[in-house]
UniProtKB/TrEMBL annotation, chain A:
Its main location: membrane. Transmembrane segments: none annotated. Residues 650-782 form the AP-3 complex subunit delta domain. It comes from the Eukaryota. It is a peripheral membrane protein. Residues 613-687, 703-845, 892-970 are annotated as: Disordered. Belongs to the adaptor complexes large subunit family. The keyword Membrane applies. This is AP-3 complex subunit delta. It is found in: Endomembrane system; Golgi apparatus. Residues 629-665, 770-815, 830-845 have a biased composition (Basic and acidic residues). Residues 752-769 have a biased composition (Acidic residues). The lineage of its organism: Eukaryota, Metazoa, Chordata, Craniata, Vertebrata. InterPro entries: AP3_complex_dsu, AP3D_dom_metazoa, ARM-like, ARM-type_fold, Clathrin/coatomer_adapt-like_N, Mu_AP3.
TrEMBL record, chain B:
Adaptor protein complex 1 (AP-1) is a heterotetramer composed of two large adaptins (gamma-type subunit AP1G1 and beta-type subunit AP1B1), a medium adaptin (mu-type subunit AP1M1 or AP1M2) and a small adaptin (sigma-type subunit AP1S1 or AP1S2 or AP1S3). Binds to MUC1. This is AP complex subunit sigma. It holds the Pfam family Clat_adaptor_s. One of its GO terms (biological process) is intracellular protein transport. It comes from the Eukaryota. One of its GO terms (molecular function) is clathrin adaptor activity. Residues 1-140 form the AP complex mu/sigma subunit domain. PANTHER family: ADAPTOR COMPLEXES SMALL SUBUNIT FAMILY. The keyword Glycosyltransferase does not apply.
Amino acid sequence: MALKMVKGSIDRMFDKNLQDLVRGIRNHKEDEAKYISQCIDEIKQELKQDNIAVKANAVCKLTYLQMLGYDISWAAFNIIEVMSASKFTFKRIGYLAASQCFHEGTDVIMLTTNQIRKDLSSPSQYDTGVALTGLSCFVTPDLARDLANDIMTLMSHTKPYIRKKAVLIMYKVFLKYPESLRPAFPRLKEKLEDPDPGVQSAAVNVICELARRNPKNYLSLAPLFFKLMTSSTNNWVLIKIIKLFGALTPLEPRLGKKLIEPLTNLIHSHLGSLGARMRLVLPAPRSSGSGCRPGLALCVQAPKPVRALKYLGLLAMSKILRTHPKSVQAHKDLVLQCLDDKDESIRLRALDLLYGMVSKKNLVEIVKKLMSHVDKAEGTTYRDELLTKIIDICSQCNYQHITNFQWYISVLVELTRLEGTRHGHLIAAQMLDVAIRVKAIRKFAVSQMSALLDSAHLVASSTQRNGICEVLYAAAWICGEFSEHLQEPHQTLEAMLRPKVTTLPGHIQAVYVQNVVKLYASILQQKEQAAEPEAAQDVTQLMVDRLPQFVQSADLEVQERASCILQLVKHIQKLQAKDVPVAEEVSALFAGELNPVAPKAQKKVPVPEGLDLDAWINEPPSDSESEDEKPKAIFHEEEPRPAKPRQPEADEEELARRREARKQEQANNPFYIKSSPSPQKRYQDMPGVEHIPVVQIDLSVPLKVPGKYLLEKDRKKKKKKDKEKKGKPRRHSSLHTESDEDIAPAQQVDIVTEEMPENALPSDEDDKDPNDPYRALDIDLDKPLADSEKLPVQKHRNTDTSKSPEKEDVPIVEKKVKKPKKKEKKHREKEREKREKGKEQKEVRPRLFPATWGLPLRLPCHVCSSAWLTGPASQATCLLSRPSLCHSLQGTTGRKSLTVNPDLVGLFQKSSKHRKKKHKKEKEERSKDKKKSKKKKPPSDEAAEPVENGALDEDPLPVRGTSLASHGPETYDIQGSLQKDSQVTVSVVLENQSSSFLKSMELNVLDSLNTKLARPEGSSVHDGVPVPFQLPPGISNEAQFVFTIQSIVMAQKLKGTLSFIAKNDEGSTHEKLDFKLHFSCTSYLVTTPCYSDAFAKLLESGDLSMSSIKVDGISMSFQNLLAKICFHHHFSGKRWGVALNACAVGEKSVSVDGKCSDSTLLSNVLEEMRATLAKC
Amino acid sequence: MQFMLLFSRQGKLRLQKWYVPLSDKEKKKITRELVQTVLARKPKMCSFLEWRDLKIVYKRYASLYFCCAIEDQDNELITLEIIHRYVELLDKYFGSVCELDIIFNFEKAYFILDEFLLGGEVQETSKKNVLKAIEQADLLQEAEHNWSVLNLE
């Protein structure tokens, strides 16, 4: 042994350590990659060794290599090994490596749960600390859920070192597992008054971050924070508190007034350094009055060399701008100067400010200045930024500041000369928007656009034609749509039919083709009116000549439109040859005015009364049918839209037929409401909505917005969105300066407001960004905490202290905390699904197009909602397996397993010499069926729920610890885990809740014939198994005991004792604790994958004996019941061997049928189920 | 704070700490992009830059760039202060720190950072406490080492 160790350490001497590696890499500058791959090979060898020190060294080197950019994910398991080393030295390295390379996609991460839990409860504060630190970097939702309670316990640890870490990490836990926020919040609040300043500042930090989301929850804490602010001398904390107040003041105006004084004091006391002062002012709440502001402008002017301050000054100004626009507008020149700054950050900030500073008076000047910068700017990002800013500034508040739209169009045209911008579509959108909405400008716009089309080669010829050629889209459309304003339509037509056009992107060509016809129609009309049939025929000939180039297009849309139009034109040609006047009919193709439609109009269409979006349209197909068709898809769990895809796609014909029938019906039905708000529009029919390009325009402005500064407040947030999707502007008045009114508009401007459906529902809730990571934290903390929200706790269950021994013979059903929780979760999930479903259906419904997409408006719009939903399965099937069977079946997975499960509870009282001690034994084993349980996905969401719940039983099953007796109870938890064949591992979490130190613990069980405790070799049946650790007060640890099981057909109960020596100040005593272990039949059951056809065969085979039970008087819903059964007996999905088929019989009774190859097992299982059901 | 990067003037990464879980690929991409952007900036420019939807706060100490990514609402100056405090801590621990110290003892640099920040938030504002925690952890490590040596003999 000793020799081995010596050998190990000698080996180690020859290994490279980190320093050697670093040095080696530095010495191999030329062939670094080769050297490193060599090192990685060495490391792989080292990782194979048993010596943990060698492994740790290897992992340390890997961590370094990871930083250099090498993939080390293959070593994830080794990292976990090192994490679980007993020595701090190695553990530290293991956790460091884990925090560096684990992420949510790392699959081994779930193996760490128990290790982390163990480390969290380690007696050494540094072990705990290192675990917390590591966890903070790779916490996943699962880890957060499983460990939330452990971390919460640590928040009241004796050591401040641990407390502050625990408090901080709670924030990460909240983000990942928002359900934990409510239960943990009271304790978090306590920590605000923690005696240790570190813990206090940690708590302030966390609450401050939380308050970003839902500040009103934290309003009640304002007095506390106020006290902290006035008493604390720690700048770090102060800044956080001020930031928090910044979030709170908008909710409580009185707070602002109260804050002025202490804030001013703070600022004055920090006058010494301007930096410190700025630091404080920056986050200061805006409503705290302008008293402390005047110095700000100074910051921008004075310390020019200090660029950080310049930047911050601008930042601060943009904040003041929201409340005191005038005071900032005075510094316009200064801000414009900043645009010349070398530093991009500063320029961007200045740009940002300009947005708020424009008025009717200075708009032209500012834009001119910006345009000159556009020309000068190097670097596309900054130029693009400038471009979007110009458009933002001009279009803000529904073009409020623009008095001369001709000027604006020229600006836009000017902007098209920009090379390589990504924002061509933005310019295009603006052109379209202005042309559509400002009727007076159309003539001018058309002339500009035709010029643009004429010089299209300039635009499109630039190498980066990706971006800017989008404007041709707008130009073509405007020229086509408003062709009556064209001076020389013929010339434009020629321009649009140039061969060069075919090099443009498909969607633009498509618009070209479409608008060529519009143009053609208007030319025809002109010519016919002027009685020039030859000229008209020439035009037709031109069309016939040029259109084929589009017919050959690779783009389907272009091809389709072109070939259709070509035929049309050829037909016209024939008619013209016969001297038939055609112009009227051709123009009739494009009759009607296009109205701009508000981007959100579609959403606002109220659901007509009596329309139930969730109701079945067709009878759902029977589930057995679809089950046979697609056995795989059925069990797929994460299918977002379970109903829709199930409809056999093969049935295309059938679908088409139905669609046809539906259209027919709609056409004949005079009461069918045409979905468009402007019924005069003509629609062609088209088979599906998929073809309609749908622009999602997100507008962060509420719909009814005559409000004052609303928009300004949201501006920052909006700005970002605007960059991606340009929101439609809206008539809106804000930030008027009196002098603005003096300027008369250069022309009569009639800005058409966008249409909204009648009785649109006012709402702005869809403004929330669903991707916001903090959205989940928007939780109301003032609601009282419901039982269902308790955190999942490891300790499983408690029973009453007064439990009589007879009663303990029955498996005691714990208070199901988890259950309501599940229900709730389920409920929530259902609601979400409903919402999604609703959304989905809405999308199927006709959609109105935002005005920017004028063109598609003419495309067919109504397609009736046809959501194919299948009916809820009225019954679900659970299959169970016997281990013997499952072994043979699971050969492929290579894992054999037996599970012992729930229900073992005992509670004992015992008096000791000194005082009465109450001991509680609480046991629970749970299966960790890590089997790939093939989850059944019944055809509808509803039916899916129970099964999913059943599958959930890997979750920790939380049990509320009914508060046990007065002093120092000791809690013991037992959980079961898998072991090999016919063995069962029972893990016991022993927690010392007394104040004594516990040692020499020994666990012994009175073996039965069937179930035996596996003892160390050489010991007799009467010897106990020692527990391999000691327990200081308040510490818990987990011990595992292995049991051998002969038969699983019978439930088992074992009596046992735990003996230990309790040591406290008054001396030590030897004490004993009795408990009972209950192994229920169902707990042996294991989930096994099984295809439905195999399962059906088995059921038919007749090898299985059958039995059934019926239980009456059940008030629960069937789904809940099923969930409950699954929960208690660990049925999940399908199981083999034992088939249970529960159906709801009548209103209040349930019958459960079971089939199994072993009738004893079956009857026992059914008996246990009956017991469960009886309690429902 | 979303992440912290330390890199040299040559663009070599010296330390990286991510407080948001990202895949290696994303991390690499971000690192490459940021290192380039920051190195391209002139010394006289301000320490802040807006990048994607984050704000980057960076500062150069000798040949090393310390670079933090914070969210929009976060305070830039306090982030600068955090960087400075971290540098101070490194300096105290290593005794006038230089780039080589961080290269060769990169795990120590991480440990110090971990004692100072947790999950991207300042954990301990007192320099003394941070160093004390690190020293004690080191002592523990040493004790373990000694113990294993004793055991061996």
